[in-house]
Amino acid sequence: MKDSDRKFLNKLIAAVSPSGFEEEAVELWKSQLETVADRVDVDVHGNCLASLNGEGSPRVMLAGHIDEIGFMVKYIDENGFIYFSSVGGVDPQVVPGQRVKIKTDEGYIRGVIGRKPIHLLEDEEKKKVPKIEDLWIDIGADDGETVGQKIAIGDPVVFDVGMQRLDSELITGRGFDDRVGAYVAARVLTELAGEQLKAALYSVATVQEEIGLRGARTSAYGISPDIGIAVDVTFASDFPTMDKKKSGDIKLGGGPVIARGPNITPRIFKALVEIAESAEIPYQVQSISRATGTDANVIQTTRAGVATGLVSIPLRYMHTPVEVVSTEDLENSVLLLQKFIAQLD
Q: What pLDDT score was predicted for residue 116?
């Protein structure tokens, strides 16, 4: 991964972008593509659409959702402690003891999520998973009135962690689900800019995927693509406690994961596999025997139907502050989709 690409991804991960509050990440994504795309628009729903060769055929849509899980401020008590609700599928077991940042109209405010110390927990309390409503955010304030002057009900909150490099080509951070998909969609368009395409390409940073695939539904309706490919993450199974009989054999560094199943058009699956093999791009196949739970699900059934594919990046520890991906998988996903679109006629 080039330094410039790593910096772009790092900025995307740092942005606060829970479902419904994607503006900061969308603006970064938009500014990255404005100099290379023929056109960049933000629709009424908040999706950002960048296009190349808009009059070409077939019309291809790449969708990477730019929202993440997070929290919202729910209530501020008289002592200044902030209670919150979750946005998307947050695991309550990983929430206590985390640092967070709250996005307000005046900027970020840092805090920590508190819980009674383990020394003081009763035996029964130790056995139970804490409920979100029983946890609170402490920003170090003295009273609720002071906090209320800084923070509004409904302000978005995320874990206060950025992107870091682990050993070799692995990186960790929050929000890789699915900022890495939005990153890949942006990179594919950037790599194809200036080429003589026959296809029309629409790369889209979709919103509100974590609360029901909402942005992909509206943006696909507007684009009316002939081919739609969702770019998302999927469960890696190369770490302890994972059952490959249930999840399949998916590993970091093994290449992009090409989905196969009723949510996927067979010709799209076959074409992606053939391109990967001819270009010697490592790839993995995932069997999904139902709706995928990704943007591909709603893209497929848009208008009269769309020929649909799903390319996923293997991910460890999904929906935690320490998600892990391989930069090699990101680069190979870009290459696979770049070659797929370039050969369309």
A: 87
Whether 267 has a pLDDT exceeding 90, the answer reads: yes
Classified by CATH at the fold level, domain 70-159 comes out as: Elongation Factor Tu (Ef-tu); domain 3 (2.40.30)
Residue ranges per domain, the chain? 3-68+174-342, 70-159
- % of residues, the chain, pLDDT over 90: 94
Is a pLDDT exceeding 90 seen at residue 72?
A: yes
64-78 CB burial, b ≥16 within 10 A, e <16: bbbbbbbbbbeebee
Residue 58, helix vs strand vs coil: coil
Per-residue pLDDT at 270: 98
Question: What CATH topology corresponds to 3-68+174-342?
Answer: Aminopeptidase (3.40.630)
47 bridge partner residues = none
Does the active-site annotation cover 209?
yes
- The residues pairing with 236 across neighbouring beta strands, listed in sequence order, are none
Annotated catalytic residue: which of 68, 209, 210, 331? 209
Confidence of residue 202 (pLDDT cuts 50, 70, 90): very high
Long-range CB contact pairs, 104-109, < 8 A, 24+: 104/150, 104/151, 104/152, 104/155, 105/152, 106/150, 108/16, 109/139, 109/150, 109/151
CA-to-CA separations, 38 to 24, 200, 203, 272, 278, in angstroms, rounded: 22, 11, 11, 26, 30
Overall residue count recorded for the chain in this entry? 345
